[in-house]
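Example record for the data management plan.
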Amino acid sequence: MESLVLTPQMMVVLGLLGLTIVLFVTEVVRVDVAAICIMVLLGLMSLVPGLHDITDVQNLFNGFASNAVMSIIAVMIIGAGLDKTGVMSQVASFIMKVGGHTERRILPMVSGTVGVISSFMQNVGAAALFIPVVSRISARTGLSMSRLLMPMGFCAILGGTITMVGSSPLILLNDLLPEGMEPFQLFDVTPIGLALVTTGILYFVLLGRYVLPATKGESTNAESTEAYFQRVYGLDFVIREMRLSEESTLAGKTVGDLEREFPVIVVATFMNGERRVGPWSGLTIAPNAHLALLGRHEALEAFAARSGNRLNDRLDIFADALAPNRSGIGEVVIPPSSHLVGRSVTDIAMRKTYGLSVLGIHRGEETIRQGLREVPLQAGDALVCHCRWDSLARIEKDRDFVVITSDYPHEELRPQKVHFALTFFLITLALILFTDLRLSVALLTGAVGMILTGVLSIDEAYRAVSWKTVFLLASLIPLGAAVDQTGTAAWIAQQTLSLLGQVSPWILQATMAILATFFTLVMSNVGATVLLVPLAVSFAVAAQGMGMDADPRVFALTVAIATSNSFLIPTHQVNALIMGPGGYRVMDFVRAGGIMTILFLIVSLVMLNLVF
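Corresponding structural encoding:
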């Protein structure tokens, strides 16, 4: 093998690599800003004599049109479309129904599901589709997104090793094998991939409390309804769920009767398969009905004791409808010109007409809480209400109210568009699995289809894209290309292997895995695979010539699998994707990803030698 000489171009690229790592770890500037600076610096290098060929300035910004970046943009839009129609909310409800509300139970459900999905579709696509699911689960359970997103993202990467179509390096591997070498079949790597996904899940279940941060990301987690009551309005109310028995004495009464008899408010009902939030006072309560009750803790306990029905500690039937991102406390004021002045809450049928359950009336310095439904409203009255956010959004356009609450989720779900969303999602999936169409084109087909059918507006599609992720990845692509094109990567690999000298095959195999891990952090995993697979095969053949038991086929597979060992810094597409929503810093990846990197190396090398 021809010996490579360290050139000035290689030295500059090594310096830029070191600078990138320092900027990422220290976070002197945001990681996306650091990546943009490195890209611009690469371009400026073309002005320095002798360094003009480090990068092709004409193609410096091609990363923004790369297959990977366009695929990420498209998959974010598809995920937002599925979320807008309520599909992801239903997935979240199912996961919570099976997995409960605790981190230890939800984490394996989410991570395992994503791991399996990413075994037959691009891992960044699987991760992007599940970000809305994790957001919903976070809002309903109060668990920080940062405690769930990183395990999900890591398992999406690990899931790519379950089949030979789960990641780009494994897809590419058979084409890189020497002529005459037996190609790998679809499920040859499945035992290795399953072991890696299981390791990832166990790692976060057992050690997650120590390595995962508890931060707030770009999509700030909605606080619990109870905390919102107390923080903003000083109302120590809670919401509990109750199911009436067949013989309950409450059956046959109206919502208004129940609220007059007990100091509680019925904020939602589920009867005869129909769920209502803010049911009107004249609604008759049926046997076996589910009720969501709002009141002071002591009042709810007393109500349960007197009625002979048990309160649930957590919301079940109403978990979705009463989640903080769907409903909560709002404040509205009655203006002097309102047609409601002089009429009571009962006269207006406030819940039936406007979807507002009035909890209190602020008048001057007095807060009316008792008998408030019969109090005639006056100009300037501030009504504190429990309502669905879409109801509050509707009355913002009503001149009879002035809505004071402004920082609520203005989310307009479009369940009527669900068939369009699912149709284009399935079309996209079919194009990915059953055609040779470029991934970005297949994904953009689904994204454009959702926009044209009104699942999302074009402005909503723009807002769905995490531009921080886009600029981070697109700006790093030229650096990865420079590492490859200047021969820097080949020189590092050659120097590392020459330092080892004559060693046992397993040390050589481990070294190839470590090299692949390093290169996939600073360049594309495809580039690392193309560079290292021929090297791995060559060194295995050389070891065989020296009488060692080294299988070139296994060495090649070692490299292709190790290029998925991308957890240490957020340069992998999945890690870059979850960084913003999870509110992660680079050191969060270093802390959690460092251990995962070591576990990946150990488990993959052990399984490779056991299976092959």
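Summary line stored alongside the record: Strands lie at 237-243, 265-271, 274-277, 290-296, 311-312, 327-333, 356-363, 366-368, 382-388, 402-403.
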